[in-house]
Design a protein that fits this description.
The protein has 391 residues and is an alpha+beta fold. The protein is built from 8 helices and 22 strands. It has 4 domains: 28 residues, no CATH class; 130 residues, no CATH class; 105 residues; 59 residues, OB fold (Dihydrolipoamide Acetyltransferase, E2P) (Beta Barrel), CATH 2.40.50.140. It starts with 14 loop residues before the first helix and ends with a strand.
């Protein structure tokens, strides 16, 4: 007997026949003693019966599909994959999921690499808990002396149960963290503004909730002076406030109210009120600056005011800083209709359509014709052309 010959300590086969030996084991015994797939035969997972979200790597996420059958398989697949990543031999440094038919042809892999395939082989998903049994197969190499890859198969059953996620528990319990108040300066919000703000908020909340699951609107209260949105998260309320300011202009401020103490941490809990005040100006308003120039507001947005000088007919845009610096203020102007009755070299004669009173005005720098009717603004003893009326 060759004293230099080595044998597998588990099955006794010689190294020549069953080797090379790895840690004293023949090739077959090494693979048997060092299984790479250490998956439990049962896995439990949950999905929220209210919103369809499920826990992924410890965080609740929204599903890709809300169609119930697809959703159940998505949740089960995710749970299986997560369990797999935690139950492969520690010498596997990385794995890739491939289709089952692709796995058959794999004969070589670098050390520390694994390929995983899984497919459902039996299921019932008509009622909860939904039960899906998977066939899981893994090929891997964990030692450089390994001649054949680990090739292991296991059947694993995933139970998908229903629960209510923490966000929905809070939402269904009436929870809110902040109030977003939308008002207009010195006037109630107009109906068209309410609709436009509501639409903007709806679009923005969809966007916010992709990243902030607590960014929901708990309630919307219509008030005489404006709108109140009860929000699940303060950061979502701040983002919405900024979006409204960007679209409509105005200013944002915050106030805090002490609402209690956290029983676990003894920290004080504050509720935030985020207020957006959109400008008092509306399209069609007559405004005057501190030098006495009179304008009609043509546009109001996040950047400033589009205004038409009623003396020259010229349109211009002023940013909000300039509007404030130049003391632009809305003024009460009476709007009346008048007809052009005659046109001189430098003046036009007008007739008030209600009182038939006639008056003369400096000829405007746009073309007017006899018989045309204009809407006029009466302000401080002066009259300004607004627009031609079409009948």
């Amino acid at each position: 007997m060759d004293m230099g010959e080595r044998f597998c300590y588990r099955c006794g086969i010689s190294e020549e026949e069953g080797g090379p030996l790895i840690d004293g084991l023949c090739q077959v015994c090494f693979r048997k003693e060092n299984p790479v797939l250490q998956l439990e035969s049962e896995i439990n997972t949950e999905l929220c019966q209210n919103c369809g979200s499920y826990r992924k790597n410890g965080v609740w996420v929204d599903p890709k599909s809300y169609e119930l059958e697809e959703l159940i398989f998505e949740v089960a697949d995710s749970a299986l994959l997560e369990e797999l990543s935690e139950s492969l031999d520690e010498r596997v440094r990385g794995f890739e999921v491939v289709p089952m038919e692709e796995l058959d042809g794999i004969k070589e892999l670098p050390v520390g690499r694994a390929l995983v395939s899984f497919q459902p082989v039996d299921w019932h998903i008509e009622y909860f808990p939904a039960i899906i049994t998977y066939e899981v197969r893994v090929k891997a190499r964990i030692h450089e002396l390994q001649r054949e890859l680990h090739d292991e198969k296991k059947y694993v059953t995933v139970y998908v149960r229903q629960t209510v996620c923490p966000r929905c528990q809070k939402f269904l319990g009436g929870y809110f963290e902040a109030i977003l108040q939308v008002r207009a300066e010195g006037r109630p919000l107009a109906e068209d503004e309410r609709k436009a703000i509501g639409k903007l908020v709806e679009e923005k909340v969809d966007e916010i909730m992709r990243k902030d699951r607590m960014g929901f609107i708990q309630d919307t209260i219509e008030k005489e002076e404006g709108l109140d949105f009860y929000m699940g998260s303060t950061s979502a309320a701040r983002k919405l406030a900024q979006a409204i300011k960007d679209r409509f202009g105005g200013s944002v401020s915050e106030a805090y109210e002490l609402v209690g103490t956290d029983r676990q941490t003894s920290r004080e809990i504050y509720r935030t009120s985020v207020s957006v005040r959109i400008p008092r100006f509306r399209r069609g308003d007559i405004v005057r600056d501190m030098t006495g120039n009179v304008y009609e507001v043509e546009r109001v947005d996040g950047k400033g005011l589009g205004m038409r000088d009623l003396s020259t007919g010229e349109s211009e845009h002023r940013d909000w800083k300039t509007v404030r610096r130049e003391g632009v203020e809305a003024v009460e102007a009476e709007k009346r209709e008048a007809m052009v009755t005659s046109i001189g070299r430098d003046e036009v004669q007008m007739m008030d359509m209600e009182t038939y009173e006639t008056y003369e005005l400096e000829k405007p720098n746009f073309e007017v014709k006899e018989g045309e009717v204009y809407e006029m603004a009466h302000l401080g003893g002066r009259r300004y052309f607004l627009r031609r009326k079409s009948y």
